[in-house]
Structure formats: C-alpha cells, structure tokens
Amino acid sequence: MKKKFRLQAGDRVALAMKNCPEYYEVLFACWHAGLTAVPINAKLHAKEFAYIIDNAGARLCFVTPDLESSVDGFSIRKLKDLYAEPESPAEVSPDDVAWLFYTSGTTGVPKGAMLTHRNILFQTQAYFTDIDKLGPTDAILHAAPLSHGSGAYGVPHFAAGAVNVIPESGHFEPEEIFELLGRWPGTSFFAAPTMVVRLLASPAARAPGGLKTLIYGGAPMYVADALRAIELFGPRLYQLYGQGEAPMTITGLSQIFHQKEFVEKLSTCGNARTGVEVRIFDDNDAELPCGEVGEIVTRSDCVMAGYWENPAATAKTLRGGWLHTGDVGSMDAAGYLTIKDRSKDMIISGGSNIYPREIEEVLLRHPAVAECSVVGRPHPEWGEAVVAFIVKKSEVKEEELDSLCLENIARFKRPKEYRFVDSLPKNNYGKVLKTELRRLL
C-alpha cells in the first residue's frame, strides 16, 4: 500500500466504510504498511466526515459506494484500488499509533484518541483472559459498526484463527442476526444495550443455538432488560465498560453473574479487567473509600497514548498517570463498580455518544433561537432520546430546526423533541442547570 500510494510510515488512512468484508482488508493493510488507520462512523454527516479527515491529516480515504457522496472532494479510493504488489510487513514499535479513534469531547469538537499497537495487543489478550477462549471453530458476528467496538473485538478472533462474519445487509437487522446465529456455531457478537432490546422485541426472537457469547456495553443496561435477555439467551452474556480512550477494557461482569440469582450484580458493570486498575477519585484527584461517589479513573496498557494534536486535552484527561473518564460512580468492597452517572452532559442513544453542545451550536445558528439547551430523556428502546429546550426570539417551526440539524450533523443526533420555554433555569454564574431540565422531563 505504501509503495502504490506513496505513503510514509505513520501516515493516516481514513476508512469511510459501512460493514463489509473488505473493511478488515484495508485495516490490516494499513498496519502491514506501518500506517495509522482512521475508521469513521459510517452514520456521520458529510461535514463530520470532512472535519475528521482534515483533523487527522489523512493522506488517503477508502470508501464504500454508499458513502462516496459524503466524502466527495477528498482523495478517495474505491476498494478495487487497494490491491498492490505484496511487501514485507513494516517495522513498527509497540507504541506507534495503529488506530486513531475519534470520540467527541464535551466541547462538541471530536478528538482523536491515539490507540497504539500495544493498546490493541493488550485489549486482545484481555479478551482471551476475561471473556472467552477462542479457536478456529469459533466466530464473531459483526452486527455493530466495525469502526467501533465490534471492529476492535474482531482482532482477537483473527488472532485465534476464528471466523469474522459480516451480515450481508451491512448493518443491524434482528431477523438476519438470528438467522446467522443458527448458521455459525460458537458465535459471539458485540451489541449496544439498545440492540439487545431490539433483538428481544423482534418477532424473529428465538433461543439461538449457535450463540457462544453476547458481549454488551457502550451504555448502561436496565436490570429488567438484562433479566429478559438472560431468559432468552441464557448465561451467555458478558457486560463490559470501556471508552474510546481505553477501548472496551476497563471493567467487566462475567457470564457467571448473568443469572437470575445474581440480580444485585446486574446493576453493576463488574470489576476491573485483568491487568487494569480502577479507582474512584474526588475533585482533588484523591482516592475515595469504598461506597463513596466520585470520578472513575483507570490505568493500564489499554489506555490511549493521548489525543491527536491536542496536548491540552491530553494533559487534562491523563493527569497524574490516570485516564480520567468523566464518568461518575462508586465501588464496593469487593471491587464491583456502579456507574451513577455519565459525563454530566453526555447523552447515550442507541449505543452512540451524543454531546449536547454540538447540537446546541447548530440550533443557535437559527436567527429565531435566542437560547437552547439539549438534554437526554430516558427511552425504553434507545436508552435516551435527545430533547432540545428552546427560548425563541421570534416564531420558528420545528421543521425548520430539524432541517438545520440534518444539514450539519448526523441524523441520529438531531432532537427527537423540541420544547419551547420562556427561559432556561440557571445558577448564579449564569450556567444552565441541566439537572432542572431533566427533572422537567
């Protein structure tokens, strides 16, 4: 790949691709050539694609046909252009950046978490240790985006010689998932809790004979939903807690606790993964005793090297040698972690992180909007739904605001409801009290 496209070691290559078998061909070609892969969520808006490609300084972008218009104007290559003369693998260091994972910050500006080869190796070994032993008779079904957790968990399956199964649809279809689980024995797959709920509600729902492990994470799972999932899938569920900055590997709740007699454990997200330290810190970065609530911090060889070309954010997030997650929780005497809240403003809908300020900045472009504030409302299927509170300067229709959002951000981020109010609740410093808005919901 380097020779054909005249790339240098460490150059970034973007992947604007829906799930397809060629995805891993491109990913492994990047690593073989000593390049840094930049997988991008296929659901993003064209402007969001543009920002990530530009910020990463990507020299090349591979696209699937359905996304060509979203990255139009860039140096794109269709998948047929990938093939070149074979070369020996490039010499790389464990601390070279392998995967630039873009995860939005609370400012609404996406940040690229630099994931090294060491991070990916650690994550792979932690999978074997904590989740499953794998072999050539096993498989992983990629029902979730390869640009995120599912793609990361394909790596240990490749390492073990297992099969990676890409649904023909290229996305999540419950009926197709159940059919494939019957086709491939020893199959595992990663799903956001909302995906699990959709599987349970599907008319095609049935006990899948080929299922080995259903790994879920990316958002909290209600205990009632977990119990329903256990009833259908049996004790084959594994819950993980991780972030893009420590991919898929902070804590885990093992299959043994996914049984009805362990209801109290299902409200936790398990204990620290093998080789991982997890603590609860107060506002002064001092460790808190068991049971007290504070910020969740972690350190391990899975923690990112830092944010791409963002030393200030890196210093803040990795201060003191710990990854400061921004999530709030407590830990019991046995080391089981309970997440009390997420980063104060972040919304998780359908397993995707949505940062309100990004939406607020778009809404404020409308001349009729004086003020706005976006919060999440609990939703039985998606986890949370986006709600925008609007203070108007003049009359405006919801359809106008919808159109503005769809022109600038991904469809899944736009508000599902607009509430027009006379004013927003604020504290003495003029900061909007989102807790009060959530209470109104």
What is the fold's blueprint, element by element?
Blueprint: H1 2-5, E1 12-16, H2 22-32, E2 36-39, H3 46-56, E3 60-63, E4 76-77, E5 97-104, E6 110-116, H4 117-131, E7 139-141, H5 149-159, E8 163-165, H6 174-183, E9 187-191, H7 193-201, E10 211-216, H8 223-233, E11 237-243, E12 246-253, H9 263-266, E13 271-272, E14 277-281, E15 294-299, H10 311-317, E16 323-331, E17 337-341, E18 347-349, E19 352-354, H11 356-363, E20 369-379, E21 383-392, H12 398-406, E22 417-420, H13 434-440
Parallel strand pairs: 1-2, 1-3, 3-4, 7-8, 7-9, 9-10, 10-11, 21-22
Antiparallel strand pairs: 5-6, 11-12, 12-13, 14-15, 15-16, 16-17, 18-19, 20-21
Helix pairs in contact: 4-5, 7-8
The oligomeric state is single chain
Describe the sheet with the most strands: 7 strands, mixed
Distance between the termini: 52 Å
**What's the CATH H-level homologous superfamily of the largest domain?**
ANL, N-terminal domain
Q: What is the CATH topology of the largest domain? A: Rossmann fold
Q: Count of helical segments?
A: 13
CATH top level label of the largest domain: Alpha Beta
Strand content: 25-35%
Structure in a nutshell:
By secondary structure, the chain is an alpha/beta fold. The chain folds into 2 domains: 9-341, 3-Layer(aba) Sandwich (Rossmann fold); 347-440, 2-Layer Sandwich (GMP Synthetase, Chain A, domain 3), CATH 3.30.300. The protein has 13 helices and 22 strands.
